[in-house]
Specification:
By secondary structure, the chain is α/β, with parallel strands linked by helices. It contains 13 helices and 14 strands. Helix 7 links the parallel strand 5 (127-133) and strand 6. It is globular and about 60 Å long.
Length: 352
């Protein structure tokens, strides 16, 4: 297993803005920045994030929080003032059901990203770090789960074929940052996240939804798609570390994959979740698994090649899926109640 990358970058007292900082990934990033001594400001409209994710830091004065919609007039301008580094994670987003069924909402990210970027440049921000996605990759490269393919950053190019409006908005934001760097000299970096999971994760993504189904002993246990889909799920601590390294080491708008290279079949992940759930409960419950090919599935073969991140950042994921899954399930089973999880499964698989 990789050792943690030792950074010589000085975050202490650096004024930093994290948009969408109460979200699952955003709050983990905020906590690490605060641990390193940065002066962190968070702007979030709380449409999907939770203030409780940052409450201890806010109450102690370690993080400044502003509730605001960055689409509103003047909000982005005000947020960017006096900031050196902007981590832009705010977005209208959700899991696969949301990405497929709410494309008009996801398209609003085109406006949001433009407002944040323009405000950052006008305020003299030194670095913009953007939370991009594996959804920028061409759909036609991800159709055969039997092909052992690893998506490389150079695979994004003509003919562009992003994953729904969410993917197109992420792609346009990446291209905008490259243009801003060339024209105005602002430092920029894009981090392509490949589905992130971990403690405090939300049930609208696959791993967390699997864990939720196991928690409530769903029987039959539903799996969207055929279950033959291949994915690489990335533990949130690795994502945070890679994002900070990108902020430290990339300035020209280069996009890097932050994802493991573990090729995991969805049905194999489901069986691992069911087995460990039984261990946590101390029983032998094994539900019947039913696949739902008619439900939103997305590309069936999405796995990152992370060699560019290793080359540019010295980054490789440290947490293997079997380890991260257990850590996440330990947290989930200790933190959740049956009523909360039932409600989450009812709403979050297709909503924010």
């Amino acid at each position: 297993m990789n050792q943690r990358v030792v950074s010589e970058y000085e975050w202490k007292d650096k004024p930093v803005l994290v948009t969408g900082g109460t979200s699952f990934i955003g709050s983990n990033l905020v906590r690490e920045l605060a641990r390193r001594g940065a002066k962190v400001s968070v702007v979030d409209d709380l449409s999907s994030g939770k203030l409780e994710n940052l409450e201890p830091l806010i109450s102690r004065g370690g993080v400044q929080f502003t509730r605001a919609d960055l689409n509103e007039q003047g909000a982005a301008k005000s947020a960017a003032e006096g900031v050196e580094v902007v981590f832009h994670l705010a977005a209208d987003h959700g899991g696969r059901g949301y990405v497929d069924l709410h494309q008009a909402e996801c398209a609003s990210n085109l406006v949001l990203d433009g407002l944040v970027f323009r405000a950052a440049v006008a305020a003299g921000v030194k670095k913009i770090v953007f939370a991009s996605s594996g959804c920028v990759y061409p759909n036609h490269l991800q159709r055969d789960p039997q092909t052992k393919r690893y998506l490389r950053e150079t695979d994004v190019g003509p003919p562009y074929d992003a994953d729904n409006m969410y993917g197109w908005a992420k792609l346009m934001a990446e291209m905008t940052l490259v243009a801003l760097h060339k024209q105005f000299g602002v430092g920029c970096a894009s981090c392509r996240f490949f589905t992130v999971y971990g403690p405090r994760g939300v049930e609208n993504h696959a791993v967390m939804a699997m864990i939720a189904r196991a928690f409530v002993k769903q029987d039959p246990f539903e799996v969207w798609g055929t279950g033959e889909q291949i994915r690489n799920w990335t533990y949130v601590d690795d994502i945070v570390e890679g994002t900070l390294l990108a902020a430290e080491k990339i300035s020209d708008g280069t996009a890097v994959n932050l994802g493991t290279m573990e090729r995991i079949r969805v049905l194999d992940a489901v069986n691992s979740v069911i087995q460990y759930a039984a261990e946590l409960r101390g029983d032998s419950f094994r539900p019947r698994i039913v696949t739902k090919p008619e439900m939103p599935t997305g590309p069936v073969n999405r796995v990152a090649d992370n060699s560019l991140a290793e080359k540019l950042l010295g980054w490789k994921p440290r947490v293997a899926f079997h380890q991260g899954l257990k850590q996440t399930m330990d947290w989930y089973f200790a933190a959740k109640t049956g009523k909360d999880v039932e409600e989450a499964l009812r709403v979050r698989l297709t909503e924010r």
